[in-house]
């Protein structure tokens, strides 16, 4: 029994609909369009970027020796009394020192991006990347990269950061707010000049900051 035209059309329609569903699922996985409407806010403590100075101890003038008191008309003059020594002021302990090594502001690449980035050496000698007041779009597979590539404005700068050397600092913690990323031990940060919010899925920069020596 041969298939009728109606049956054939129904079969083709079902096959076409199935293919369309699969394609839509793949596109949804790749692009995750709903993330254009989502926001992840991070509010981590940033290192205090300041070099603490040690206060100079202050000194007070020592009291002069008390003058001898005179007795009444009769009797010898008593010996002068020695005052108690003035206690020396306590020298305050130096505060922990944080040093800004390099810093810069984010510019927009594929997505509008603002904020500031700085490399900060901590009191124990370790270095962190501090990102302050970041605002960018949410997106799939976003990472923070420290790179040796220049920051170029416009579309010419969207894809340069995987052309040279880079250090993966981890997945972006949030597309809004303050956040801190540890620099792996042994990384020579002087070799790197930029930081990028990098979308690994599409090999494109959402935004980047040039790091200038402080």
UniProtKB/TrEMBL annotation:
Low complexity bias: start-end ranges: 54-76
Keywords: Membrane, Transmembrane, Transmembrane helix
Coiled coil (UniProt feature): none
Transmembrane segments: 12-31
Bias-annotated ranges (Pro residues): 77-95
Protein name: Electron transfer DM13
Highest taxon, organism lineage: Bacteria
InterPro entries on file: DM13_domain
Region (Disordered): 54-99
Zinc listed as a keyword: no
Domain DM13 residues, every copy: 96-212
